[in-house]
Amino acid sequence: MALILLLLAAAFLLVERNLKPVILNMAEAKSTALATRLINEAMNEATDGRVDYADLMHVICDEAGRVSMVQANTVRMNEVATAVVNAAEERLQRMNQEQIGIPLGAAFGSQVLAGSGPVVPVKVVPVGGVQTEFHTEFETSGINQTRHKVYMTVTAWIRVVIPTQAREIEVSNNLLLAESIIVGSVPESFVGYNPDGDLLNLVP
């Protein structure tokens, strides 16, 4: 009898050791999808209908009317960044209320067992603050035209916790904030956004 119990205990430990990494990976995938959705909702909520190209960028022309410089409106960009961060952090704080679980049968990789067995609870906790970053892109668009796009990247960190194991992961999402067609070639200079408040002279 003792031998049978010992063998059962050994089998349980073997299955547990082999399945936990699989369960943690599945929990990470589910948590990443959830966090990405929440961040995307926050970005859309904070920017929808409130941001356009003229808000973020000033197009400066020379005496001949040619575009010579594109300058970032750092004040407005800081306002947008703050709104997105606040909305994202508020939504991510609600992740504890989300019911996430991995059916134990899903860890075996079988479609038959995918929804069976006890559910392993998954807890998702935000770690640190949300960060934002702006970046732009110039691309040729037709004859003598340049398309200028302004993107925002939002990055957050979350901790995925299952019984006896945890993992911290980074979640990022990109959003095209605004774009415009500039008549003429790519501007000779671009004065970009710096979160520290300084202006950077960059050549695209």
UniProtKB/TrEMBL annotation:
Any Pfam family hit: Spore_YunB
InterPro entries in the cross-refs: Sporulation_prot_YunB (IPR014197)
Protein name in the entry: Sporulation protein YunB
Species whose genome carries this gene: Candidatus Onthenecus intestinigallinarum
